[in-house]
Amino acid sequence: MKTNRLARVNSLLKEVIFEVIQKEVRNPHVTTFVSVTNVDTSADLHHAKVFVSLIASDAEKNQIIAALNSAAGFIAVHASKLANLRHFPELTFRLDTSLDEHMRIEKIMSDIEKERRSRES
Prior knowledge:
single chain; alpha+beta; GMP Synthetase, Chain A, domain 3; 3-stranded mixed sheet; 4 helices; about 20% strand
C-alpha cells in the first residue's frame, strides 16, 4: 500500500514540478527544453530526486542542472502551492541519461547490423 502512495506522490510531483519550471522559473540558463522524466521520493517523503531530460550540449546541461539545483527552494515553494501535501520534499535535480544511453545502444546495434551485412556480401 505504501508503494501505491509513493507512486502517486511521485506522479503528482512530476506534474507540478514540470509546470513550475515551465511557467515560473525565469533563469536564463533554464531553457524551455527541460522535461521532468521521473521523480524518486524517499520513503519518508522528505527528499525527492527529480530527473530531467535536456536538449543541450554537455556544458549547457551542467549549467542547467546547477541552475535548477540553485532554484530548488523556489521551485519547491511554488510546487507546494499546487500539490496538496502535508510536507513538501526537498528537491535535488539530476540529469536523466537514459535517452543518451538508448541512442548509444541503438548506434552500436546499427553498427553490428552493418558489419553483419558487409560480411554476408
